[in-house]
Amino acid sequence: MNKIPRGTLQEQTFYEQVGGEETFRRLVHRFYQGVAEDPLLRPMYPEEDLGPAEERLALFLMQYWGGPRTYSDGRGHPRLRMRHAPFTVDRAAHDAWLKHMRDAVDSLGLAEEHETQLWNYLTYAAASMINTAD
Ligand code: HEM
Predict the structure, then answer these.
(1) pLDDT one-digit tens code per residue, 54-71
(2) Which GO terms describe its molecular function (predicted)?
(3) List of domains in the chain
């Protein structure tokens, strides 16, 4: 019999499975390189320096996928729809955001199953952030 000894099956979070902090940092860094060049998205970001926004998104995604809770330690409950209310997130902004995210996800070279899981979440989350009627 091929028994698995008790205590040797470790439940890993998605965060750990895809490579932890480094993977999320790479994802978000690549994403913001796209945003920096984007004529629609770049003006939406209030700060001159995109670094702090990059940090917030990286920490949020790390926390969401089971990593450290550093995002909420600093920012409290995410309340993402509320935090996006000052910005016009219409269909065009949504499409541009997802375009850069797609490019960033592709750059990671994840296993297909992980990639699908991450992408399904990002598309769902992006659709839920739209706050205009069109
Ligand atoms: C759909 C198109 C989206 C647009 C145009 C957009 C745009 C923005 C802008 C302009 C900011 C302010 C930058 C800053 O100061 O941090 C921001 C913040 C943020 N966004 Fe988005 N966003 C979108 C979707 C999303 C999605 C899908 C997520 C999550 C999966 C997300 C997560 C965040 C986070 C965590 C912050 C920082 C919140 C904070 O702590 O203040 N955004 N976004």
Answers:
(1) 999 999 999 999 999 999
(2) heme binding; metal ion binding; oxygen binding; oxygen carrier activity
(3) 15-129 (1.10.490.10)
